[in-house]
Amino acid sequence: MDERQRILQLRKELHDHNYKYYVLNQPEITDQQFDFMMHELQDLEARHPELADPNSPTQRVGSDLGHDFQQVAHKYPMLSLANTYNEQDVAEWYDSVKRGLGGEDFEVCCEMKYDGLSISLTYVDGKLMRGVTRGDGVHGDDVTDNVKTIRCIPLVLPGTGYPHEFEIRGEILMPWKVFERLNEEREKAEEPLFANPRNAASGTLKSQSSALVASRQLDAYLYYLLGEELPADGHYENLMEASRWGFKISQGMKKVKTLEEIYEYIRYWDAERKNLPVATDGIVLKVNSLRQQRILGYTAKSPRWAIAYKYKAERACTKLNEVTFQVGRTGAVTPVANMDPVQLAGTTVKRATLNNEDFIRSLDLHIGDYVYVEKGGEIIPKIVGVDIDQRPIIAQPVRFITHCPECGTRLVRYEGEAAWYCPNDAGCPPQIKGRIEHFISRKAMNIDSIGPETVDDFYRQGLVHNVADLYTINVQQINGDGSRQKSAMKIINGIEASKQVPFERVVFALGIRFVGETSGKLIARHFKNIDALKDATLEQLLEIDGIGEVMAKSIMTYFHNEQNLEIVERLRSYGLQMALSEEQTAQASDRLKGKSIVISGVFQHHSRDEYKLMIEQHGGKNVGSISGKTSFILAGDNMGPSKLQKAEKLGIQIVSEDDFLNMIEE
Ligand code: IVH
Residue 113 catalytic? Predict the structure, then answer.
């Protein structure tokens, strides 16, 4: 057999074993045998780049090449379902269906309502072509590379008989077990915990690194088939067919006819769903016949032929013993309720967040109160009420602290904000450590040789008090007793390498309040170097599209603080990038000089940010809203109707993506 044939054979066999393991749950070979074949295929593919295939099983391991997700339009919009919470509502829906069908008989397909994030998968000739998130229902993010790492989603269908082209929708989930393990790891690393498996799955799927997605072991259940040439008129029958093509479909689907059968299904799964490996929050009821679905049609937001029944969040009652206070990296103080341990939705609960002072007041919370705790899809429980009848006579109301529990400074509350803050940002330990952790984080300076524990060590040893101190540490200081030579070298090299991190990320890394990753970029590109940014006036800051008053003021405050200025000067002296690179500032042309350009719609060739940059590099200015001064609108697909109207009224030219690219390339 030649190498080409061997590659094809290995791909086929690996797809097949993957299906048996992840969809059917019936592996035929050991993990080692699987890995062995995978390695052989990887080696062969590396030797034959001409035989590359985007749907090869090797693509499941992902890569960490970051990519901004392209926005794409859904072929069929992704609607949501109307929610119901009791049997009465279900009965009303059932009657409305009966009326809508003029009394015709109908069947209802009952299925689980998965609590993850919805995904739309497109297959052409049995190959996965695209995976798109729900987005706003009309456009979503193209996350194909990340979706490919989810093992139960077939890249090439193992079965036969599927239509030439179809779409299948379902839910991507992080199984409970994986979620718990992930949060345990994050707790150890002192990283913020995910509130629930849905947030964890969503954060994972939108990650820029498909290798990270691959490592998180997401799962998927598919529950809706769409296309021009579907096998049957029944929703249930179509999904059964899809299961034969190789998909993992919604579990426990059942076709019923009467209301009583629907109630029975709901009651059965209320208890039984706790044994499922993934989170569910209700039941979905769908009229089974597609013909009848068409008769019933849609309201503006959701189909009339389907409805969701949501289970009540679980609730428990327990005693509040104490309220403690935590200080975060921004200095915000969060009150935490400490309670007698109580069993709730499968876990023991003894702590709950109390959000802020107003929340405590609204509950009129007293120490010793019996409180109701709920865990709706959230893993962090909430206190939702107090049983006043059980309040001890001498109970004292919960009082918010007046001074920081970490450094003793008097707390302040800024106008319009719910939180109390410790204003001692330069001297309060969790704030100092938090700022350093932010500075070294992946999206900032990316010094991944240092973790939160190391930051803590360095701080306690007195090696670092602020981010500039990182650059003065030497190997001997870390390597104290001489046993940590290797890791010390790694840390120093990581710190050294960060000196090459581009200016726009340095701006983000400084940790100026409210300045996120994207605004950091906008600010850096606008001012081009730290000196211009340092001296910026409020007016100049507000000129930037996307920077509001709160952020602008916070930037001013940061650069009016002597300590911050000293840190910035020190960072500059250590060699950090304090200006855009020549490449970034180089003016490509002045073809757009003096032009004010509005960007609108969804684009095929480049992201919005890229277009913004192009406009600047050709001497133009990107502005947010259309006015008489707008020179033209760079319009992608689906430009908003109100913008279109305004442009027409003011007689402003609309330039397509291709024309724009020609315009600057000529
Ligand atoms: S069908 C037009 N089936 O619930 C109806 N959706 O509120 C298309 N969901 O965005 C959806 N389990 O993310 C359907 N078995 C199920 C579902 C389900 C969960 C989610 C889905 C959708 C949301 C609707």
Answer: yes
